[in-house]
Specification:
- By secondary structure, this protein is mostly helical.
- It folds into two domains: 193 residues, no CATH class; 101 residues, secretion proteins EscU (name from scop, 3-Layer(aba) Sandwich), CATH 3.40.1690.10.
- Helices cover 68% and strands 6% of the residues.
- It contains 13 helices and four strands.
- The chain has a four-stranded mixed sheet, with helices on both faces.
- Helix 3 runs antiparallel to helix 5, helix 3 runs antiparallel to helix 8 and helix 7 runs antiparallel to helix 8.
Amino acid sequence: MADQGFQERTEKPTTRRRRKAREEGRVAKSMELNSAAILCLGFMTLYMMGPHLAGQVMEVMRHTMTNAPQIALSDPTFISVFSDSMLKFFVILSPVLIIMTLVAIGINVVQVGFKITPKAVELKFDKLNIANGLKRLVSLRSLVQIVRDSVKLFIVGFVAYKVIDSEFESFFLLPDMSVVQFAGVMGKLALTLVLKIGAVILVIAVLDYMYQRYEFEKSIKMSKQDLKDEYKDTEGSPQLKARVRQMQREMARSRMMQAVPTADVVVTNPTEIAVALKYDPSEMDAPTVVAMGERLIAQKIRELAIQHGIPVVEDKPLARALLKMCEVGQVIPANLYKAVAELLAYVYKMKAKVVK
């Protein structure tokens, strides 16, 4: 029983399993990759747009300082000035904020594609369970994450130290520089520092993404029992499929029997086969099989034909040929036209004699 209750997940996940995991918000994604992209591209954008942004900020400050006396008279609390200045700063920084937002969205789309998953943001009360939270806190996964973050922090700190140490001698020249020169040197140092740290974080992020993909693939693997259960869910159990097929056959047979009274003639074997034919020159290009069957079904077709006054004609070769070459609702093949035409002519002749 224990073997049946637990099976090792060794099978590759199916497309349905992957789709279900994605709908639940479970995807292979590295937050480190997001951080690296935002840090590098965001700071490069800020560095390239820095002179323009600084000029706009200086213009706002210059305007405020120049008109300070008039502003103080009109608004002693400076509330409106403060709100206007904050709005202007936000407008000035909006290009950088928009670019960083697009970068954040883009890197997520690159990793997992674009799909809105409402289930991922649903409130799940099991996550509020303190006992479960403590289990996750002391799990092997948490330990691996702590070690990984510690190593990452050490590597980033070491790279930052080496970059600053390489420029340490130039710091002694800073007091003799103008404000513009000082800003240029510090900006260049900051850019070098951020890019090198970003490159290190990017390498870590790529490794982390590979690890996340490995963990994700491992988490959605399936056991043989999972595959069987999924097959039953999608295809149905063999018993249910057999029952559905039986019901479909019964419904088709019922419709076929309802069409027997509309036939012009029933060709028999005489006891093993019965084929009901109908021909309406105004609607059909050739005679059509409206019902056919063997043994019990053939007997039922004959009984219905006799009950509704449909001629029943014995023609063993034609009955066998029709059963072999035709389907219900299908016109007869061309090579049987002559035989069926002779049969219908005979039937029409017999009906004419009965009318007289």
